[in-house]
Amino acid sequence: MFGPEQGHFALALACVLALIQFVVPLWGAHKRNARLVAMAPFLAVSQLFALAISFFSLIICAVRDDFSVQNVAANSAASKPLLYKITGVWGNHEGSVLLWTLILGVCGAAVSTFGRNLPDILRGRVLAVLGGVSAGFQLFCLLTSDPFDRVFPAPMDGQGMNPLLQDPGLAFHPPILYTGYVGFAVPFAFAVAALLEGRVDAAWGRWVRPWAVAAWCFLTCGIALGSWWSYYVLGWGGYWFWDPVENASLIPWLTGTALVHSAIVVEKREGLKIWTVLLAIATFSFSLSGTFLVRSGILNSVHAFANDPARGVFILALLALVIGGSLALFAWRAPSLTSGGLFSPVSREGSLVLNNILLCSICAVVVTGTMYPPFMQLLAGRTISVGKPFFDAATIPLTIPLLLAMGVGTALPWKRAQLARTFSHLFVAAILAAIGLVLCFWKFSGALPIACGALAIWVMAASVTDVLRRIGLGHSSRSEMLARAKSLPRSSWGAALAHIGAGITVLGLCGMSGAQHAIVEIHVGETRSLAGDDWTLVNVHDYAGPNYRAMQADIAVRHNGKLVTMLHPEKRDFTTQNQTTTEVAIHTNFITDLYGVVGDRHGTGADATYVLRLHKNPLAPWMWLGGLVMAIGGAFSLSDRRLRVGAPKRSAARTMAKA
Amino acid sequence: MNATRRGLLTALPIVGAGVLGVGFWKMLQGMESGGFDPRAIKNPNVGRPIPEFAMPGLPGLGDGFTDKELKAETRPVLVNFFASWCIPCVQEMPGLRSISRNMPIWGIAYEDKPENASAFVQRDGTPYARVASDRHGRVAIDWGVTGVPESFLVAPGGRILWHGSAALDPQIYDAEIRPRLAGL
């Protein structure tokens, strides 16, 4: 049981089940045959079961050091710690594709389980679309990226894993990120099902939103985790490189954020229907294309995947089917969807439209910047690289009105707002933002960080004052306020929390724009000052780790003569992989990070000098903390009873029974 | 909004995706045939005259050179950007020495301390007929250099004939540089 052949067979079985899951419910829905449609949930759960066996088998192969499996031989080694044997399964191309399909299987089973109260036909169609996408990726896995391929004769030991990847942060980064990417398959499937049905209504908006929010939470966490990893493992002092792989995760996040907001308008006002369907298709399409572009090697990225154009052709064909098919369906059926009434520009829905326009503009900027180099080379034969200066210059001016609108939007009522009343609601937040502006002038330098920092405080203040106003602060008794706080929908709490998280992240980014660093070459005992602190290289010593040799530096950081912390950065040489890694030393008090890296040693004995890279990074932890708060906000709003899939139908049934 | 306009608008996404898809397909085809390399570095200055510059020399290695001196050469010259801190440049040195028996190579030390660059060039015998120091990388920007080592084949009169962005060796010389010398 759970050998490579069993895993291989289970994967093939899952593929067959997925194909049936694709065809049968669609046919059943077309022929109005309820029994065929009702097979979908059973098929989805069986498919997940087969995939789980397959994935578990691959883990067992890695744990048992079965080097007859090519994938294990190429990426594992007998001496590797058990945790990394397990997590290493998805640290390579083949294993990560298998993880991808597994998560897709989990999504299908989740729709089957939690979507019991969806109309049968809709659920059948959603599961069919998920099954089709699953089948495509399982075929990709089986035909071009088989994780169960064997080698003969089996090597005695594996080639080991890139030591950079031997990190707990990175071990759990791919599953979380993939859950975000793949999670958007569910809103996608809802969109395609709605197009097939030719009907989008408020109920559809209510059903699709929790899935989009859930995927969004995971994607937010995934991006934050990836950025944090690059900050504390790579030792370059930065957190975001505008690398194509990073952009590939940011693009669906932007459209996904737009989707999470536009679906509210579908639910509350039956507006933006066509747009929301398009966003749901676009978000998953961007998730898929990002993976494709990275793995085909078209985009020139620092993230090295084993590039293989032949695989690229297969994925491109798969994308043409999934994205092309859904967009063709969109072009054909979307014009027949009835659109809602016109919106007043000054209203909640008006502000959500503005939010969508701005988010999609930022997304367009990122897509353009990412796609420009390969297309320029294809069309004009010129090499061009697009980096931070372009992205900063083009995205920040769009972020400023977005932050401004975030504060105003939550204070606006639906349909039509009275400006004077809205302004009075926002008065306190505006005062707090003004105080924030003064603080930013004092702490940040540069017009953009100051403006963005004040706006971030504005967003947070508006979210807090909005919640306080709704629970009646100032004109209600304490027990009344408590009762109101309890009855305030969880989605409102969640939205406020997510907006506060966004504000925290923006403040972190503003703080980091004032980060200072120095590269110094000093002897042991020497001191250099950076940004008001004195950094002394106290000692450097060598030691041998389990599979590496390390050089560890002891750096004392003093502020006005008082010891703040001792940093112990290391440089490790992994001899078997012939690779060097840096172990960054970070001291944080959650306001400022002191960040030290040790580089090369020049000379020997007492004459030796050491290259040190010293960073003082204000508010750095806030960037990732804000991401976490955003995700918690999303999760909180998921727990709202109103949003739970099926709840509306249940209460509708109850009302009908009463009648 | 009338029906035709709606139809056209809803067809836009698939048209856009189609254009991107065709582009990606062309790129993949090019990657398999070798015609498209996303990591290749193409220099826009190939075929154009060299930019204007005047650079000092390195300690113990002469006075540097200017664009006018390079243009006044009667033989083609290989211009090589290097640095003592660049490992591929170290690996390139033996290859450059063997190429220097066939044609003159003029070296430009890119963002390097003059004494380090000078020691590096003289360590195993210099391949360069002349050497200049681009201490702050200003000249390299005009040439469109993206990193070191990079080399340019300059025809008499100062037109750039060829650009290479990898460490040179006799094979590259035979395959890429020598055929271009024949026509001069």
Number of strand segments of chain A:
10
Total helix count of chain A?
Answer: 21
Low-confidence stretches of chain B: none
Largest sheet features of chain B: 5 strands, mixed
- The portion of residues assigned to helices of chain A is 55-70%
How far apart lie the N and C ends of chain A?
Answer: 56 Å
Radius of gyration of chain A: 27 Å
Q: Structural class of chain B, please? A: alpha/beta
Strand content of chain A: 5-15%
Oligomer: heterodimer
Query: Tally of extended strands of chain B?
Result: 7
The end-to-end distance of chain B, rounded to whole angstroms, is 66 Å
The number of helical elements of chain B comes to: 6
Q: What Rg of chain B is obtained from the alpha carbons, in whole angstroms?
A: 22 Å
| CATH architectural name of the largest domain in chain B | 3-Layer(aba) Sandwich
Which band does the percent of strand residues of chain B land in?
Answer: 15-25%
* Biggest protein-protein contact in the assembly: A-B, 37 and 29 residues
The CATH homologous superfamily of the largest domain in chain B: Glutaredoxin
CATH class of the largest domain in chain B: Alpha Beta
* Run of helices and strands of chain B: HEEHEHEHEHEEH
What is the total number of structural domains of chain B?
2
